[in-house]
Predict the structure.
Amino acid sequence: MFTPAELLEINVLLKPENKIVILTHYNPDGDAVGSSLGLKHYLKAKGIHAEIVVPNDFPKFLKWMPEAKKCVIAEYKRKYAFDLVNEADVIFCLDFNSPSRIGMVGDWLTHAKGKKILIDHHQQPEAFDYVYSDTVIPATSQMIYHFIEAMEDENLVDQDIAECLYTGIMTDTGGFRFRSTSATTHRIIANLIEKGADPSLITSNTWDTNTVSRLHLLALILGRIEVVCNDRVAVLYLTRNELKEYGFQKGDTEGFVNYGLSILGVKMAAFFMEDLYEDFIKISFRSKDDIDVNQFSRKYFNGGGHINAAGGKSYESLQDTIATFKAKIEEDEM
């Protein structure tokens, strides 16, 4: 958490006349959107207006959250988004540890004059004016709740805040099943439910929203999962042509990598997908126990994240990327 002195300084910055912007990472997920909206609604409860800027669009299944559709999407409104960041007095940076993680918005952030406040749970954060970094906490949305507590404003948590933070925690913990989920996490969830978050409604709005294209793609990869490295590593993939054939929509492949990890005996899963428009391979890694996919991704695939959940990127062909992956897991004895 921020030091008491830092909290006092931040509190001075949070005044209605200041322009405040909230940023999150490229390809925003449930925690990125949930933490950003939760913080926005908290500031609103304090009488402070804030704008959320996201680098690119996010899945429809996250747009049910209060005011989610008011997020400024930089890829659609570049000039407006740039002006917001450039003119901001305070910039909250949520769920990313480096400007390089937020696409073109990262360059705007680097040159912006506003005070930069980082709240994030990824490893190896870069320097910001104020840093609250904790890699043990399973979701940035939980950190936003701790921040509200530290500001002694827990009484301001209303249904809007509760729904957004609950969604962020739920999605980033895989439905509270990842090992980083703690007793503290569950206590916060209980508090959010008491503040108006409806677990059944949130789960339905977020996860019970399958499209036909998603189910077709899921059936395709489930039919060809490969298990390698003495049955300890699962490999899944999708090609660009397959995405086009089945009418891929943003968010359709969310969580696919977890199916590989659910196989009995598997300790690591990797999902490879050709980008729909650019020549690179997007990679998602998941693992169990002490298998560190964060370091593995940083070492070989231009990525990073958490010990048990990370992402990466490759500029080789899909076939060559998978071949490289198989060679490296054997080499590192994953």
About this structure: Residues 46 and 156 are 8 Å apart (CA to CA). The longest helix spans residues 30-45. The two ends are 34 Å apart (CA to CA). The chain has 13 helices and twelve strands.
